[in-house]
Prior knowledge:
Strand content: 5-15%
Number of helices: 4
Radius of gyration: 13 Å
Largest sheet: 2 strands, antiparallel
Structural class: alpha+beta
Shape: globular
Order of helices and strands: HHHHEE
Helix content: 25-40%
Amino acid sequence: MAQFAMAGYQGPHVMGSICTDFDYDLLDAIRVADFDRVAAHSADELVANGDSEFLQGITLLGALPDGATPQALEYQPIYRALTGLWAAYWDLTT
């Protein structure tokens, strides 16, 4: 599993703070399989909004077939960790 190295992070305190509006926009794009909208965000923009967890998720989205929508999608902001956690399930057997 890929992970952002927070121990080496030297940015200002507000950098990396969770922005749930930004998160929910990304999750909405995933929910409707608009992966181009997700991929339009740079890694710096994701980290600046506290979304380092999406860096590995975007790689996963690239492996999904076009139009694949998740059967389940959950998200929880974890403010003490400066990130949120999200999980999704796609049934690709049909």
